[in-house]
């Protein structure tokens, strides 16, 4: 009798494991589809896309850039320990957002249609995503 219960438990565990694997594969596929759609909305300047979709794409692109930068430079870019740790999470997005806002204005004056990255919000979101990933991963690597 106990052998039957063990076999049923193993069977149930395998079935649950398989179902969870299928579910997570589906969720992962949907996330990649959403990311691809959002990134194509950021890159495609010819047609107007939803601002929310563009912002999701910029956040994904910033996170990917942060991952690549950690891979290329797996250390703090400024060697000195900051008095206020994490201040780059505020300063980098402000500087990048301002620069991208100026670039977007210049492109509009030249008659071009800039992407959503060429706005203060777009530049700041991209830089914040990148800085957040770097801050989190570099902090984990240094400890």
Give an overview in words:
This protein has 143 residues and is mostly helical. It has one domain (2-142). The protein is 76% helix and 0% strand. It contains 4 helices and no strands. Helix 2 (51-72) runs parallel beside helix 4 (120-142) and helix 3 (88-109) packs antiparallel against helix 4.
Q: How much strand content do the residues show?
A: under 5%
Order of helices and strands: HHHH
Per DSSP, the total helix count is 4
Helix content: over 70%
| Unreliable residue runs | none
> Number of folding domains?
1
Distance between the termini: 52 Å
Instruction: Look at the helices and sheets and give the structural class.
Output: mainly alpha
Mean pLDDT: 76
Short summary:
By secondary structure, the protein is mostly helical.
Topology readout:
Blueprint (H helix, E strand, L loop, with lengths): L1 H42 L7 H22 L15 H22 L10 H23 L1
Helix pairs in contact: 1-2, 2-4, 3-4
Tags for this model:
single chain, 143 residues, mainly alpha, 4 helices, flat
């Amino acid at each position: 009798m106990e052998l039957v219960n063990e076999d049923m438990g193993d069977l149930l565990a395998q079935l649950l494991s398989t179902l969870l694997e299928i579910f997570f594969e589906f969720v992962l596929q949907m996330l990649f589809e959403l990311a691809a759609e959002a990134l194509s909305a950021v890159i495609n300047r010819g047609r107007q896309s939803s601002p929310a979709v563009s912002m999701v794409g910029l956040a994904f692109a910033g996170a990917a850039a942060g991952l690549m930068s950690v891979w290329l430079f797996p250390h703090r870019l400024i060697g000195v320990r900051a008095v206020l740790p994490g201040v780059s999470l505020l300063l980098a997005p402000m500087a990048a957002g301002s620069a991208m806002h100026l670039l977007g204005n210049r492109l509009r004056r030249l008659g071009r249609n800039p992407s959503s990255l060429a706005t203060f919000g777009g530049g700041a979101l991209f830089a914040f995503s990148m800085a957040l990933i770097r801050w989190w991963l570099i902090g984990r690597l240094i400890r």
